[in-house]
Records
---
Amino acid sequence: MQEILVRAGCFVAIIILGYALQRIGFFKAEDFSLLSKIVVKITLPAAIVTSFAGKQIDPSMLSLALIGLGGGIAYMMIAYLVNIKSGKEKQSFAILNTAGYNIGNFTLPFVQSFLGPMGVITTSLFDTGNACICLGGSYSIAAIVKEGGRFSPKRIVKSLSKSVAFDCYVILVVMNLLHIPIPGPVVDFAQIIANGNAFVAMLMIGVGFKLSGDKSQTKDIIRILGVRYGVAALIAGGCYFLLPFQLEVRQALVILAFSPIASAAPAFTEELKSDVGLSSAVNSISIICSIVCIVILLLIML
């Protein structure tokens, strides 16, 4: 448990470091855009490559991927409905910053330490569906809502295809299912870049962190996180008590439901030309909330 808390504390410390450097003038406002591009277009795709290296997706458990995808879709639908009277700007922001899970950089270490190999397999498959949301799916829907356009599969696919991370993910899934290995030199190169993904993503959140202190921003944060963790409780309860999987799988799904908001959300918020400061604040607070929730759940279940 100590190792997990130390790792989570390190994430929070990096966010605080980014915020402190921004406050003393080391980073300027425009530097967030550069950091977000590095995450979305370089370090995140590299992390995806390394996550697939040496692993094989079991087609018989692909239903777990549908749970990850379904959870993201549920968040987007609820965020859309809750903010339907708040205007398209807030509605699109809520869709992007409510859906998606930060699994690889945050939740996976918890699962590895406490739930064993079956928990890791469950997490990997769940993250397969989650990737469709956090690597461009929620951004595509948010962009359509903000622009006032109609939902259409063609438009969503077109928007998704512009995401380097999502394109990388699709290619690797196809290669995996066809049993085509990733060349060793490619994995080695990607590993070096991927090692910096967690650091750059957390630093970016700290650099973008901005709280104005006004009541409307506080209300937005409470509403988004209220929806996020309220739905998480429902998903976790449904997975644990209703699904026919073995205990270790259901325990892993409970932990996954309480993962923080995807760390790439502030970067996609920048691409959406929305409120980066608020997005970074929501993301940072969600990490703290998830640490508390996951530790309590592990103490209850184990």
---
Amino acid sequence: MVTTADSSSALRTVLLALTVAIVGLVVGSILTLVAALAAFAVGLTQPTVLIVLAVVFTQGVAFGGVALVFLRRSGLGASFVPVRVPTLRDLLWVVGGYVLAFAAVAVGASLVLGTGADPASNQVSQLGMENPEVLLVLIPLSFLLVGPGEELLFRGVVQGLLRRVFGPVVGVTLASAIFAAIHWFALTGGAGARLATIGILFFPSMVFGGVYERTGNIAVPALIHGAYNATLFAAFYGALRFGEMPAILA
């Protein structure tokens, strides 16, 4: 039997998890804007410079910083997000999770696109089509900042909070939905197209969350996420330079 107190606690946890995610995004947007204005002021307008600033100040400073500040201020502490040097077992999970992430996005794309929905374009994809060298910069950044920063905030903190109240299955599912939904602001196009892309992104997000749940080591989904993104950027670059771009990368 679910009591009113239980329902209230669950709602507060969902709102708290959403708030942490939104604060991370807002702080990242503000810091990126300030950094971009400073760069423009000194004549640094190259796309590669701007994308590096965006990744550093959003995934690096904002996502990582908000996660760490929250853990400290809430009293949860750094131990709330377990991390260790990956063991052989962890590395096997990295390889398996990497394969599963691409299988998941293929399934998600098949299901969503099978409804006749057209996915939205990603702002990074559009920038990459205009300036392919940006994609090469994003490959190492995926490992250094994107994977670690996003996983620390969305799996370590958001999923961790939800898991405590809802258990692993619902916790992973809710956190994956929040993570996918946050991408709304990085997409272009109508609401239907954005929702279609968010639906596709939900599937690999479930893999990241599930692997974190199984390994208890945030480094594992961070590596998978970094490798996943880096592969997409490398494939996108190769497609732009040498052949036709797959629809899933657009």
